Amino acid sequence: MSKNTKNRLMSMGLLVASSTCFMLASQNPASADDQTEPKQAVVVTNNQQQTDTQNTNESVTVPTADQSSESDNATQTESDSPQTADSSAESATPTVSEPDSENSSATAEPATTTDSTTTTDAATKTDTTVSDSTDQPTSADSTPTTETSTTDNSEPGTAVTTTGEVSAQADTTASGVQAIPNAQTDQNKDGNSYTDLTVDNVNNSTDPALHPKGGLIYNAITDVTSFAAASVLYPLFASKFGSQLTSKFRTLLSPDRYDIDQTWKYLSSEYDSTATKEFYTAAKTWWETEAPKQDLAIPFADGSGTARGTYVAKKGSNKTVIYGQGWTTEPSWMGYISKVFYDMGYNVLMVYTEGQSSSDGNFINFGAKDKNDWVNWVNRVNEINGKDGEVILYGQSLGADLALEAAGTNEMPSNVKAVIADCGYSTIPSLLYSQYSGIGQKFDDLASKFGIKNNGNIPFLPFNKLLNSLNFWQKTFTGTSFDEASGLTAVQNSKLPTLFISTKDDTFIPDNQTETLYNLSASENKQLWILGGTVGGHASANNDVVDYMAHIEQFLKTVDSQNQNTDIKDKVLSV
């Protein structure tokens, strides 16, 4: 039985409600052999940074108005791949140091510019950096010009820098090659974009896919079916017992789910699977036999119990990464990934959310209350390393949103310097709808054969009613609404430098949700990196460990530089 087949069965099995079947589980990616066309990678940053990917795995980084205001002209080069487009124009060529593909802790140095122009070799591993003309998201209808510069290099780690705006819609060159689009923007805020959904705007929506209309009998029936389905589903994904049961069921269908070879097994050819294998094989041994683990605990911010975590001290370091737990993520798996930061010289504190692992609580609040606990975690770290020790907030999936939500609080200590959010969701309703619509599409395909228009709905389970019923149980058991755990709200409340990461093959939290978070982030130093090709599905960007470490280190260097400039300005003003 194939990996995809197993996971589809898993998803369908989990989300059976009475006689109506649907799913709320991740579909893991197919193997590299199942990918008929390589996907593009996109990186976006509002600071003109360089990063790296490979061949058809291009990255795009989008800076702020200060950098992009210098752009006036645009040209594009043709790509040998029908899915990619490299950029070239009369502009500055960045000089970069190349990450060592055989060393998992490789570092990419900041780009410097010279007055020359070259083009990229189609077979090289490249990143593209794109600068926004404003700090606000650009309209999807705008089609501004770009000014680009590219470098020619035959080794991995080459950077391609593009300065200026890029149309949010994909452009096409004269040769028919599709250009890399800018991150998509959700400005309408009416719930029709599907990545800015809230409970309220779904209820007020006129979109039949979100809020179908029906007669008296239909409404009476769907009130019952939706509440019954939610009563089955909610404990499966939000209760401590149910989520553990769900995780075990997933492992039953995919026994190798937490095998370390999952980190390199599905990497497509543009990625360095050998380096990944070496790194994570060593990371597993390190975590199980060598890592200096220490159990820590703090009281929940609301006083209802105890949050617990595992602290790994890096000798001689006062820098710490606080690592948020994903939904049902095993602590040991977090431990393997924690070596990414440990090797960069950071202490690592892995924190377990309320209702998961060893922390107290019977239900998961998805960050609505956990974000306040993170303030206590930072204070606990400061007790160990001092208040002058740098703290970085990091997480994958649910953990990414926890980090973003924590960064958006007013009480966060000033020594928290940045956020790294890997495959976070924009809002919980948006995440739920991305899963719901996948099943709805299957019913659409079936209905179309009989000439019936289904509008993406699951029969007798309209999304608005299902969402309201799930939210009812969330309020009942946690005292919080889904809308109180919103990554979209969090990024608009945080000015901290933020690196957003996702992959094109993530079918659980699609990369467009990460793009939306990036677009609406209030940070003046923000970057978006989306990996193309086959990486491993949800929460798998770290599988490309060489580039993962290089991107993170490069981002943190910009944070350090920004902080140093701020310190200098403060000293000058105080004289």
From TrEMBL:
> Recorded GO terms, molecular function?
hydrolase activity
Q: Where is this region: Disordered?
A: 28-200
Which species is this record about? Answer: Lentilactobacillus curieae
Hydrolase as a keyword of this entry, yes or no, is: yes
What residue range is the signal peptide?
Answer: 1-32
Q: Where is the composition biased (Polar residues)?
A: 58-98, 159-200
What SUPFAM superfamilies does the database record attribute to this sequence? alpha/beta-Hydrolases
Protein name, entry field: Alpha/beta hydrolase
Q: InterPro entries recorded for this chain? A: AB_hydrolase_fold (IPR029058), DNA-binding_regulatory (IPR052920), Xaa-Pro-like_dom (IPR000383)
- What Gene3D superfamilies does the record tag this protein with? alpha/beta hydrolase (3.40.50.1820)
- Among its keywords, does the record have Hydrolase? yes
Any Pfam family: Peptidase_S15
Ordered alphabetically, the record's keywords are: Hydrolase, Signal
Feature: compositional bias, Low complexity: 45-57, 104-156
Boundaries of every Xaa-Pro dipeptidyl-peptidase-like domain copy: 288-427
